[in-house]
Amino acid sequence: MKAYHIQPNEMTPAALFEDFHKRAWLRNRISNALMAIALFEVESKSGNLSKYVNDGLAVSDDCSTILEQIAQNHVDYQYPDYTAKVLMDILTNRLVQEPDRSKLDRYREGFSAAQKVFEMIQKQEQPDEEMVEKTKQVIEEIDSEIESTYASEENLYRGSFIPR
Amino acid sequence: MAPSYQDKSNLDEIIFSRVRAVVLNLVNTKERIDKEGIKGDSGDNLKRLLSQTIEIVEQQIESVLDEIGEIKREDVKIRRSSRIHRVLEEFLYLLDLVQSGTQQIQTELGYLVRTALKELQHSDIKILIIPGSSLSTTNLSIGLENLFEFFTDVRSFIQSDFPFYWIIYAPPSFTRAPLNWPLIGHEIGHMLERQKWNLVKDYYPYPIVSSPVRLPYSTRDTKSYYAQEFQADFVALTYFGPIFARRLLAIYYTRELVISPTHPSWTERFGAIAQKLEETGFVTEASDLKAVSVEESSLISRDRIEHLSEIIVKTAEILGQANCDYNPNDIEEKKAASRLERLALYTKDMRTLLNVADKVLRKKKASISGTNAESRKRDLESDFDYILRDSIRLSYVKQFVQPAMDLDRNSTSS
Known about the structure:
The complex is a heterodimer. Chain A is mainly α. Helix content of chain A is 65%, strand content 2%. Chain A has one domain (13-153). In chain A, helix 1 (13-41) packs antiparallel against helix 5 (129-149) and helix 4 (101-122) crosses helix 5. By secondary structure, chain B is mainly alpha-helical. Chain B has 17 helices and four strands. In chain B, strands 1-3-2 form a three-stranded mixed sheet. In chain B, helix 2 runs antiparallel to helix 6 (152-161), helix 5 (140-147) runs antiparallel to helix 6 and helix 16 (350-366) packs antiparallel against helix 17. Chain B is globular, with a radius of gyration of 25 Å. The chains are: A mainly alpha, B mainly alpha.
């Protein structure tokens, strides 16, 4: 892959800080996406619902586009944003292997369903139950994968800036 | 598999109680911060940023919990509460780090940075200096915005009141040696570019991933990173003078400088610094830098950053307008040298102090020989650290604190 993988020991504390908080941002938006589905199901009047739906749609759009690009050409991939870096890490076990094709296909299918689900919720339409489950599954899987992929670096403030 | 809980209302109770407990910890921490304050430059602003963030979290947490109580899906409840708890816990760690970290930073370093920002006519820039493994800078405000993604009022507050709040990470070998402090000029250069100037951005947009862990071979992004580094070196050298170059050289061989693909090679950085030194008449320092045999290669060479010279010219113009180029004054330098040779304080100008101190210390160390030479040199270095810190403190008081006190006294008496 035509990218330089900066090792944790090459990262300054400032870079680690940014990386950690970007990851928190991504996981927070994923959490919002799940809340959007759960709150819509109970016809919640929460003032945050529209924001959560927008976040869900944005996450799904971003992930769909990125996964499509990776599927087409992962060798020359240009990493347009942080989400792209995270998805590539998950698919390649942090660049130690070629992208896992079965995961890639599953995620593409899942986020394609998620786009439709969030679009429908945005329009106050009832999405198909199977699609909702597929959406929930893919979002939860990505969240868990992020947690396990970066488990060793989730200790920014815990006494050390050097990843374990 | 997520744990299951039969009684939904009891599950809510357990979750709410844990989240409220961490919020209570935050509130207690806020009280501690309000009482004890935060040491260092812009401490009062930082206190406001952190205290108000906690207040908003305290106000919003019940509606966040209400949402959890409303939903039926148990696994989503658990995921959501774990996310919220994690965010609040990380913020608690940050608060502890800020409180303990700022205690370890010499007050005089803050005075030097504050003086530099005033002289560069950007005294509104807010900075937090805390210990870290290498000298580097980032925007705390963006970090907090990302961390508090689902506390919308926190985000709005930070965006409106504190869009920029810089963290400078500084290693102990830097903070404890005042002669190295001019190296912070490079970080000041980055802050000015990002918050005030955007000169590099006009030619090479900042990469979307501001501090990457995966650097694509994108020539445009690399040009942007490199141009920012050359510009930051230029700012530091223009403001602090040749001491910046001498201290870079002093720490180069011990690899205290980060060598990263987001930075140009030291061969090229030293080359650019030497060129500026020659242009401003510091020929000896220029040839010292040129004598260093470094053969690192950059992803792209300096010549390929086609707009770099325009960026540097514009940067020089802005610095010139602020009238803050380091222009050595022979008489002042002699005065400073004479005082420092006698281990006396010099409080007229911090930049003259640091530039002259470096030379005097080297000269004095070179003259020490014979029995216990190394131990005497160490003692001398230690004495110089104290003299520099005291001089910087008094210089700051004379320049900024005393005039304000006089003004206050005059207005009271009239």
